[in-house]
């Protein structure tokens, strides 16, 4: 029987290799319910690979994942039924469908209703574009549509993969407010440090696939290893 | 564990998307076809019936290729499967409804098997697999000649139509009943969750998976639905010709079908109708020209040439196919 301490998503000693490349090296992370956990690191640190492992797009060579204390073998198209939703880097959209239809595809339980889809579109502020095609919208609006498609399933764990990429300062402020008000577990991969520091309760830092720090934004900001990973060492 | 709550109520009144029920165009079409069969001469009724039979397969193919992005060059072979099943059933039981049902079921199973392989393949590899099916299936009929009577094929036993109607009139009714049921079923499938899933898989498989869509399952289902339509079309062709032979389902038939749905407009049932009309009209025009020119050799190639020329012309003028012209106008008016 799982206890309260078991609730949430946990990664235990995950290692992923792509041929000779060690993409993730013994990474462990616990994502407690209601927390916003950030994953940061320089390019190629393994952030997206970590997301791909959680989603079942990449299989770890060793390690395990548990969800609410139970072993979790993720498969991408089953995430939704486990209450996990993910957005992609860039915009993964269905350009042959209207914005409304895009969001309706995210509803997998029960009968998809336009009311639910509109609620998610209003939440992300793009309801007025419901009948437009995504390709007709500016990039930032398209990202909001993708976010609406993730939110419409009312996930208990929301995984955001570089949601601020390509957004301007106002859009990033809006995104920060949204994340703060979501009242759900959020796993965030992001390069925009102001956003990460303002919304996250806890941050994991990866460098060349290795976890080098885990702590609160304040702790991460003052961590020498993190500074070194980002800025390098003085010669 | 906490969950995201949707806003208690949607703050703005969003009008529900209004779409015409498919019944609103299928029922008037049925009445129109019925009326036409009483006014047309027998040969035109036969051609009308042929359009109906073709519509079954083009509708299924346009859903598969247009909505789901799977290119099949083997639908002629699936039609042959349906036609031979109907012939065998008719010659044994002579109950048309049973024969048609069996044809659809057998082709559905065949489509499921091909679909399972197709779901693992993309682009030219998928086209290659279906092309192989188009080549192999007719040769099966030649190989197992005790069952399929080799290249001579099978005659199809059919009860005569009621006294009050001509054979061609009755054939038109049967073929269009099948076509309209097919269009109705596909229209409802395309506008619902399955239709959205097919389009999502076509547009972005990774995003579709993350939205909770079983990509392989959707692709197999799309192939199964499309194969069932091809099986029905094959059965109706057997009813029309009252015989089935491998020569009736050559490789060029599969190519014609693909060209017809592309010219008509991929993914649109109205495009499938245009394609079905072209499949009957273009060979007929080619036949007339060849007859006038007094060259039988010309007739064999002219239809394919016509299709090629029309395909190029339509792709230049309307890359989305002929049906997209109307659709574009609607889109400009804000209706999609």
UniProtKB/TrEMBL annotation, chain A:
Which cellular component terms (GO) are annotated to the entry?
plasma membrane
Q: Which UniProt keywords apply?
A: ATP-binding, Nucleotide-binding, Transport
Q: Which CDD domains match?
A: ABC_Mj1267_LivG_branched
Record-linked SMART domains? AAA
- Every copy of the ABC transporter domain together lies at 9-233
- Identify the InterPro entries for this entry: AAA+_ATPase (IPR003593), ABC_AA/LPS_Transport (IPR051120), ABC_transporter-like_ATP-bd (IPR003439), BCA_ABC_TP_C (IPR032823), P-loop_NTPase (IPR027417)
Against Pfam families, the record matches this protein to:
ABC_tran, BCA_ABC_TP_C
Care to name a GO molecular-function term for this sequence? ATP hydrolysis activity
Q: Which PANTHER family match?
A: ABC TRANSPORTER ATP-BINDING PROTEIN, CONSERVED COMPONENT OF ABC TRANSPORTER FOR NATURAL AMINO ACIDS-RELATED
- According to UniProt, the name of this protein is ABC transporter ATP-binding protein
TrEMBL record, chain B:
Question: What residue ranges are annotated as transmembrane?
Answer: 23-40, 46-64, 95-118, 170-190, 220-241, 247-266, 273-290, 302-325
Q: Does the keyword Transcription apply?
A: no
User: How does the record classify its membrane topology?
Assistant: Multi-pass membrane protein
**Sorted UniProt keywords:** Cell membrane, Membrane, Transmembrane, Transmembrane helix
Domain of life according to the entry: Bacteria
Quick check: keyword Cell membrane in the entry? Answer: yes
Q: Which InterPro entries match?
A: ABC_transp_permease (IPR001851), LivM-like (IPR043428)
Task: List GO molecular-function terms, semicolon-separated.
Answer: branched-chain amino acid transmembrane transporter activity
What Pfam family does this protein match (any one)? Answer: BPD_transp_2
Matching entries from CDD domains are given as: TM_PBP1_LivM_like
User: Would you tell me the Gene Ontology cellular component terms?
Assistant: plasma membrane
The listed locations are: Cell membrane
Q: What is this protein called?
A: Branched-chain amino acid ABC transporter permease
């Amino acid at each position: 029987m799982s206890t309260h301490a078991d609730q949430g998503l946990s990664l235990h000693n995950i290692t992923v290799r792509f041929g000779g490349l060690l993409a993730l090296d013994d990474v462990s992370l616990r994502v407690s319910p209601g927390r916003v956990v950030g994953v940061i690191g320089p390019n190629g640190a393994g952030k997206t690979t970590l997301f791909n492992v959680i989603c079942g797009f990449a299989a770890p060579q060793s390690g395990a994942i548990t969800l609410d204390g139970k072993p979790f073998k993720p498969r991408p198209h089953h995430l939704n039924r486990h209450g996990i939703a993910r957005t992609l880097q860039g915009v993964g959209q269905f350009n042959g469908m209207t914005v409304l239809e895009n969001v309706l595809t995210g509803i997998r339980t029960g009968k998809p209703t336009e009311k639910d889809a509109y609620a998610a579109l209003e939440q992300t502020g793009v309801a007025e574009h419901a009948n437009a095609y995504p390709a007709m919208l500016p990039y930032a609006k398209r990202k909001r549509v993708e976010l609406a498609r993730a939110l419409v399933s009312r996930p208990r764990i929301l995984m955001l993969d570089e949601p601020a990429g390509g957004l301007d300062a106002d859009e990033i402020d809006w995104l920060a407010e949204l994340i703060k008000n979501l009242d759900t577990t959020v796993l965030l991969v992001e390069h925009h440090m102001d956003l990460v520091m303002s919304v996250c309760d806890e941050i994991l830092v990866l460098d060349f696939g290795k976890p080098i720090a885990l702590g609160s934004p304040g702790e991460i900001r003052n961590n020498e290893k993190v500074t070194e990973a980002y800025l390098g060492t003085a010669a | 564990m906490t969950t995201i709550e949707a806003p208690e109520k949607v703050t703005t009144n969003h009008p529900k998307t209004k779409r015409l029920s498919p019944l609103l165009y299928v029922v008037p079409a049925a009445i129109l076809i019925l009326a036409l069969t009483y006014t047309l001469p027998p040969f035109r009724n036969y051609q009308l019936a042929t359009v109906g039979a073709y519509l079954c397969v083009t509708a299924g193919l346009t859903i598969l290729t247009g909505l789901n992005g799977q290119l099949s060059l083997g639908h002629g072979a699936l039609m042959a499967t349906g036609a031979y099943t109907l012939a065998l059933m008719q010659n044994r039981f002579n109950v048309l409804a049973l024969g048609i049902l069996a044809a659809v079921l057998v082709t559905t199973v065949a489509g499921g098997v091909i679909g399972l392989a197709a779901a693992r393949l993309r682009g030219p590899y998928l086209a290659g697999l279906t092309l192989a099916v188009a080549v192999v299936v007719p040769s099966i009929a030649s190989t197992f000649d005790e069952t399929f009577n080799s290249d001579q094929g099978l005659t199809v036993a059919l009860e005569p139509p009621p006294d009050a109607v001509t054979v061609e009139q009755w054939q038109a009714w049967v073929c269009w009943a099948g076509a309209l049921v097919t269009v109705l079923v596909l229209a409802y499938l395309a506008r619902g969750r399955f239709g959205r899933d097919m389009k999502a898989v076509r547009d972005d498989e990774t995003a579709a998976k993350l939205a909770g869509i079983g990509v392989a399952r959707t692709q197999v289902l799309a192939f199964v639905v499309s194969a069932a339509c091809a099986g029905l079309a094959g059965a109706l062709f057997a009813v029309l010709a009252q015989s089935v032979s491998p020569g009736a389902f050559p490789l060029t038939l599969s190519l014609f079908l693909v060209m017809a749905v592309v010219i008509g407009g991929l993914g649109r049932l109205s495009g499938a109708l245009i394609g079905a009309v072209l499949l009957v009209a273009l060979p007929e025009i080619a036949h007339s020209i060849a007859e006038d020119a007094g060259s039988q050799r010309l007739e064999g190639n002219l239809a394919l040439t016509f299709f090629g020329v029309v395909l190029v012309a339509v792709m230049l003028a309307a890359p989305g196919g002929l049906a997209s012209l109307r659709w574009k106008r609607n889109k400009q008016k804000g209706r999609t």
